[in-house]
Amino acid sequence: MEAKSRTLGILLYPDFELLDVFGPVEMFAYVGDELTLVSVAAEAGPVRSAQGQSSLADHGFADCPALDLLLVPGGIGTIPALEDETLLAWLRERAASAEITTSVCSGSAILARAGLLDGRRATSNKQFFELATSQSDKVDWVWEARWVDDGDFVTSSGVSAGMDMALAVIERLWGRERADGIAALTEYERQRDPTADAFAKRLRSTPSA
Amino acid sequence: MEAKSRTLGILLYPDFELLDVFGPVEMFAYVGDELTLVSVAAEAGPVRSAQGQSSLADHGFADCPALDLLLVPGGIGTIPALEDETLLAWLRERAASAEITTSVCSGSAILARAGLLDGRRATSNKQFFELATSQSDKVDWVWEARWVDDGDFVTSSGVSAGMDMALAVIERLWGRERADGIAALTEYERQRDPTADAFAKRLRSTPSA
């Protein structure tokens, strides 16, 4: 496994979903010295979540350091974010140089709107699946998936799926022992199978996308 | 089920564990109009988590509104918090008037140090169990438990267990349909059995406490 030091950029925007961010951040933070975590928003400072609690962005788009990994959350704020050309342009620029760009929940709708998922396989939250699929018909949208690993883009299903996706990315970059150790420390029963999606099955048996 | 409006106070202290707070907060936030969430720290303003990201406390101890529910997280900051007499006094005062005081992970060590768990059943994080049990020998510490509901005190095991505990409290106060709906919306596979603790079993078969 690589010992290279990396930086993960956590995108925050108004009305982001709290657990989309802090589930994966909890897991990534335990990678330790080999990963630096920074949060980024249009401007540094407080960003209010969809659930009301505010978190501080360490950097604005203008002063954000180089990023190896990128985490794009969903939440009700996805809807205005889809129209935010500054945010979309920043994502296009940063995803182009990132090793892996990840999303949780409706975060994949934002990536699709930016054109970043065209020609790729991707998934999204099951209760708001059309919000993602309607952004681009050039994406191979996967209905039944806890997460989809398409190499330099890894998209996950709704909210809690972000934790399984984060552990899968940690396993890919730093090995299974590291990922399992983090899951044990946080007493998280990880889903190891990206195709095991109980929530897709509960909503409908065949995809509409 | 009751339609009474309640307020949940989320305790923040330096080096709190991110997911101990934002896992339960994600679940509680979807209760909707019947529950107001406020975060509280010694002083209002930014509080840095153990994972580095900072969140804003809405209130200081002095200006915190009346609380019906209380959430006490764990994290590495638990250790200095155990010596923080201002925090312990605030917890004793607020727990006395709260309907339910909850904790996640090593948050139960703080409650035990404040004397609030004496004569009660409680649990804590499995990898730091002695940090909790060493705070009071008057507590009936339960080794194998995802969470322990002792009426007005509900303590949970490590980090991720807080989400199962939060959904159990939501079910108790607002009904199973509400709790299941929130779990489905957040695509969270909830553990419904408070005694199902895979992490206790993996570490040892018999309790040392």
Q: What does it look like?
A:
The structure is a homodimer of 209-residue chains. By secondary structure, chain A is of the alpha/beta class. Chain A has one domain: Rossmann fold, CATH 3.40.50. Helix content of chain A is 34%, strand content 20%. The first copy, chain A, contains eight helices and eleven strands. Chain A has a seven-stranded mixed sheet with strand order 5-2-1-6-7-11-10, with helices on both faces. In chain A, a hairpin with a 5-residue loop joins strand 3 and strand 4. In chain A, helix 1 runs parallel beside helix 6 and helix 6 packs antiparallel against helix 7. The first copy, chain A, is globular and about 40 Å long. The mean pLDDT of chain A is 95. At the A-B interface, helix 1, strand 4 and helix 8 of A face helix 1, strand 4 and helix 8 of B.
CATH superfamily of chain A: Class I glutamine amidotransferase (GATase) domain
The number of domains of chain A is 1
Structural class of chain A: alpha/beta
Q: Give the tally of β-strands of chain A.
A: 11
Order of strands across the main sheet of chain A: 5-2-1-6-7-11-10
Order of helices and strands of chain A: EHEEEEEHHEHEHEEEHHH
Helix percentage range of chain A = 25-40%
